[in-house]
Amino acid sequence: MNLTMLLDMAADGFGDRIIVGDREAGLTAERLRGLAIGAARTVLDRGADAIVHLEVNGPAFPVAMFAAAYAGVPLVPVNYRLGTDQLTLLLAGHPGAYRIGGDGGVEAGEFLRAADTATGEPPDPLDPAAPAVLIYTSGTTSAPKGVVLRHENLVSYVLGSVEFAAAGADEAALMSVPPYHIAAVSNVLTNLYAGRRLLTLHSFDPREWLRLVRDQRVTNAMVVPTMLARIMDDPDLDRAVPTLRALAYGGAKMPPRVIEKALSEWPHVDFVNAYGLTETSSTVAVLGPEDHREAFSSADPLVRARLNSAGTVLPTVELEIRDEEGVVVPAGVAGRIFIRGDQVAGEYAGVGSTVDARGFFDTRDAGRLDADGYLYVEGRIDDTIIRGAENIAPAEIEDVLLRHPHVADACVVGLPDEEWGQRLAAVVVPVPGGEVDPDEVRAYVRDRLRSSKTPDTITCWPDLPRTPTGKILRHSVVNGLTSTP
Amino acid sequence: MKLRAGQQLVSAVDTTKMIVVRAPGEEVTVTCAGVAMHEPTSAAPTGVEADPSQLGGVVLGKRYADDALGIELLCAKAGSGTVAVNGTPLEIQGAKALPASD
């Protein structure tokens, strides 16, 4: 149950298939294994205790991931966009690491050349309970924490959700999220295990994404919602994607406008909404292609609403919704999402495991299940606004705002208020060419929710501050609203 | 042997390696070509030979299961022996419709 086992299986099963990069010049599974073993030798020769990857996504990333596994050290993918202070602090936590990228690190090409020339047998297999990957959370709600993912967590996820060698030789996946995101880690493993070539796009641009899909005959792709919005919103793009068969998305809330447009423009594509956290080794719930088509074509509002859901949980995962006292609530009642399963790590560096006595991990996400088991995720518990005595999930109001025909993006935050404790402030981004009348939008929300959930103010901004992986930076929204003269 | 999910079992008589995906509640005997399989960390039994009547082989990446027993093994390295539990060969499983998201 080691990541190297997955690579060994791939190299034994389809060693001469190109599995990383360009369809002619890319790496075969056998070559990937050779480079990973060589790189592991290089890392061990330096006496390193981790591999820090501080680079954009590219062929060096899968090599580094498996090199770390062969060397028995964790891979630590770090956000190369971090500010100097944050980066210095984070790197100080890994003084003995072999570092790819950044000032003083080994450049990615040099890393691959060193791997190519290193010789020696693969090191002995290591303990499956050893850490495979350490990912720092984006820290949108608190200081970044190092999430520990052990070999057994990641391998359980792969074995539970992918059939070995199931991809056709013509299949290629395009990954557009950066390597310090859990989806980039899990995609390296799942595509390799399926036998699907993995391509990466390191600076997302809708035109470049579409060009790559066509030129490289991409069949599968993964994006965050802001990327799909940029592809769908630009009126001047040629959006023909004849080879694309499946598009997965996740990481943040998908605006209904965007997914509905994508479903009508690309009827031949299978859409998959994946919900998961770094702490759960990626996906734990999936809204599949048939769910998308059924919801999109249904006149039943309950079925149609599923387009906004995270689908149903994987068969290998258990999910509970609990109230504030920790009691499991029935379908239809909102609460806190807890998850259990072999892929669930729930562990932080320097803290240890945070799962409860029954093995469940507290996602700190609010949500509910419907009568048919569809999961609706209602945002982070930490983002809850308390107005008067009422707990208000910003996501509920944002969902309504995003259905307004002139609203492209929306964020609701609580601002300090003498009378209510917190008042509701919404920031909206108008659709291109659209106009937002704050009073009209407030009336729109009041008609669909109730007055206590109607934003007290609505402010128009040209854009919302988001992380590169699409998560709203709510603190920045609050600061922007309160510092305006 | 009492199995646990994630455990590896190797053959004493050929290259076969199996991973436990689903473990049954009770103790079972897993054999390859009629010879008990063991964990890679423990010593292989000596003086054993493959049973020539149990050379059906296992295919890399395929799952082998017995639903009544509640056992499922994944082949991580192919081999020539038949993998059996308590004397009954496991059945090869068809490709599962897995809810892959990536």
Walk me through the structure.
The complex is a heterodimer of chains A (485) and B (102). In chain A, the strands form eight sheets. A seven-stranded mixed beta sheet of chain A has the order 9-8-10-11-12-13-14. Chain A has helices spanning 3-14, 29-45, 60-71, 84-92, 108-117, 151-161, 182-194, 206-215, 225-233, 256-265, 289-297, 301-304, 394-403, 438-448, 474-483, and strands at residues 18-20, 27-28, 51-53, 75-77, 98-100, 131-136, 146-150, 172-175, 197-200, 220-223, 246-250, 270-277, 282-287, 312-313, 318-322, 335-340, 347-348, 352-353, 361-369, 375-380, 385-387, 390-392, 407-417, 421-430, 457-460. Chain A contains 15 helices and 25 strands. In chain A, 50% of the residues are buried. In chain A, helix 1 runs parallel beside helix 7 and helix 2 (29-45) crosses helix 5. In chain A, a hairpin with a 2-residue loop joins strand 21 and strand 22 (390-392). Chain A has two domains: 3-308, 3-Layer(aba) Sandwich (Rossmann fold); 384-482, ANL, C-terminal domain (GMP Synthetase, Chain A, domain 3, 2-Layer Sandwich), CATH 3.30.300. The mean pLDDT of chain A is 93. Chain A has 485 residues and is an alpha/beta fold. Chain B contains no helices and nine strands. By secondary structure, chain B is mostly beta strands. Helices cover 0% and strands 31% of the residues of chain B. In chain B, strands 1-2-6-5-9 form a five-stranded antiparallel beta sheet, with no helix packed on it. Chain B has a four-stranded antiparallel beta sheet with strand order 4-3-7-8, with no helix packed on it. The chains are: A alpha/beta (485), B mainly beta (102). The A-B interface holds A 1, 5, 8-9, 12-13, 125, 128, 152, 155-156, 159-166, 173, 183, 186-187, 190-191, 194, 220, 222, 248, 250, 272, 274, 276, 282-283, 286, 288, 314-315, 342 and B 5-8, 19, 21, 40, 60-62, 74, 76-78, 95-96, 98-102.
